[in-house]
Amino acid sequence: MSADFSTLAAFRDLLQAAPGIDQKAQGEAEERNGQLTKPPGALGRLEDMAIWYAGWRGNPRPEINAPQVIVFAGNHGVTAQGVSAFPAEVTEQMVLNFQHGGAAINQLSKAAGASLDVHALSLDTPTADFTQGPAMSEEEVVVALATGWDAVDEKADLLVVGEMGIGNTTSAAAIAHALFGGAAEDWVGRGTGVDDAGLANKARVVREGVAANSGKEGLEVLRCLGGRELAAMAGAIARARSLRIPVILDGFICSAAAATLEAAVPGALDHAIAGHASAEAAHGAVLEKLGKAPVLQLNMRLGEASGAAVAINVLKAAVACHSGMATFAEAGVSDG
Ligand SMILES: O=C(O)c1ccc[n+]([C@@H]2O[C@H](COP(=O)([O-])O)[C@@H](O)[C@H]2O)c1
Ligand SMILES: Cc1cc2nc[nH]c2cc1C
């Protein structure tokens, strides 16, 4: 299927029109959860996760059989400002590594029983340096959103999106600063590993970038301060919403991209949970703004969907208990 929008406004309208949770299935799942052979609440957040998943799938006793992981890659003009510990060529080199099966996400997808797709977006044409003006034209951001939209497998029953893009923690920090305010320093982190001087430089770049693109909201923030891989993640998350496919968000960059959807249409991320809290300094603050408690906290800061891929295993465990356990009546266990 090919994406059905050619402007940001049309994309926003589609997102706005996307379905919500199936409340009947959610209610039935909640009822089932109360009958399972365990003390009430004893599976903690696994219970909430399973009920949430059941609601979005419209099935009070669902299974997870076809999780899809998608990694999007993009290059960033803002790397000209010396914001990363690694050179921009690494983006393309890592795409080849993904394709050859040599990256962490290859192993983590396999371990989670998930398919893995990799989409490189115009790597030879980096986005514009956003300290000088908008990173992308409307046409460019719409093409990237559509790449993400079209990448989602309609038959998937869970979606994880992640990214590869040297310089993109600076882009994500600028998005967070534009959406949530505060100071540039509040949103920058070490990314691939810049030193103290590098961190101060990132704060300068974020401050200048937000000043050069002031007064923007929602999807315009994505266009002006984002990158192609961030827009593609946003497009895929929106497509998943339209198909009622639950989503696990990955780290700082993924969460910042997702936050532009929430800014454009409040509630747009109700079908998404946070897979982990990245070690990137401001990820926790972004998740707090989104009202999402991370499933895992493993000090990961790799990106490429890795933290969310690990969290697939936890959601699978939650859903397996929910759908596979016996009820008190079935097992002949006294329910207290
Ligand atoms: O996911 C995260 O929270 C995360 C935190 C730090 C770095 N990364 C990855 O590192 C790259 C961006 O780092 P940088 O320093 O080039 O901005 C990009 O490819 C991301 O996938 C990812
Ligand atoms: C080697 C390397 C792998 C990555 N994977 C995601 N971002 C990355 C950044 C670097 C530098």
UniProtKB/TrEMBL annotation:
It holds the Pfam family DBI_PRT. Keywords: Cobalamin biosynthesis, Glycosyltransferase, Transferase. GO terms for molecular function: nicotinate-nucleotide-dimethylbenzimidazole phosphoribosyltransferase activity. Its EC number is 2.4.2.21. It is an enzyme of class 2 (transferase). CDD domains: DMB-PRT_CobT (cd02439). The active site is at 304 (proton acceptor). SUPFAM superfamilies: Nicotinate mononucleotide:5,6-dimethylbenzimidazole phosphoribosyltransferase (CobT). Coiled coil: none annotated. The keyword Acyltransferase does not apply. It comes from the Bacteria. GO terms for biological process: cobalamin biosynthetic process. InterPro entries: Nict_dMeBzImd_PRibTrfase, Nict_dMeBzImd_PRibTrfase_bact, Nict_dMeBzImd_PRibTrfase_N, Nict_dMeBzImd_PRibTrfase_sf. It catalyses: 5,6-dimethylbenzimidazole + nicotinate beta-D-ribonucleotide = alpha-ribazole 5'-phosphate + nicotinate + H(+). Pathway: Nucleoside biosynthesis; alpha-ribazole biosynthesis; alpha-ribazole from 5,6-dimethylbenzimidazole: step 1/2. NCBIfam families: cobT_DBIPRT (TIGR03160), PRK00105.1 (NF000996). HAMAP family: CobT (MF_00230). Catalyzes the synthesis of alpha-ribazole-5'-phosphate from nicotinate mononucleotide (NAMN) and 5,6-dimethylbenzimidazole (DMB). Belongs to the CobT family. This is Nicotinate-nucleotide--dimethylbenzimidazole phosphoribosyltransferase. It comes from Shimia aestuarii. The gene is cobT.
